[in-house]
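Input.
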Amino acid sequence: MTLALVRYEPPPTKALAGRLTVLAELRDRLAEMEGERDRLRQELRNFEKRFRPAVGSRYNQLEERREQIRRVWAEVNRARTGALKADTKTPPDEIPQKAFKPEDEIRRLFRSLARKIHPDLADDFEERRRRHEFMSEATRAYRASDQRRLQWLHEHWEAAPDLPRGVDAASRLVRTNQHIAWARYRLREVNAEIAEFGASSTMRLMQQASAARSDGRNLVAEMRNQVIKELKEAELDLERVEAVLGDFDDETVRIIRSNAGLDSASAVPPAAPRG
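Output.
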């Protein structure tokens, strides 16, 4: 016969019982909100999988075309007024800049924190759970390159690295209050994530697409067709630019294309493929 050893904990006091109830409610609410956040994230991902191939890449191409056309027309107007000059500024990627590597600081913070809070350093289940929660949050912050949150976690842990380990009501009350503070922090963070999803442009598009489906329309297909139409219009604009450049000598054309950020040896950007 094998006897299991269970640590005895005396019945909680009224104050401790009340705080344990608060903690249980917070954890239930947190689990519910995390489920809602994960659901929204997955819905957005599924929508993006449909939207990007049909519209996203074409829209980016359209914006690039429009910007190229705008720059070329600006240089053409300068040439017509005699204000055209070769751009002698150092290209942005050649301007000496002080090295800035935020990733190094984020990596340092994460490693420093991980060494202190790793769950393997725990002596009991409750402490392991606390460390696991911290470690999970630190990992999320690191993957999101959120230096502010990593710094907050580091300072929060340093303020109370060790909680009372006793089974008396006073020690358990301190630990419970710490868990409550952590749960409230997580609720704020998850609520902020949900709000960010709700305010995103992808969410607005998804809501518009849902409303369109209720009317028997396919918004993604409509947007795809509209972008294709505007790309064809951009092709005509490119042809007009090419015709106008024919009025200038080769050196002026070279300067126009160079100042507009185009390859001076090539023609105006090729038109987008049809279809």
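Residues 14-80 form the longest helix (67 residues).
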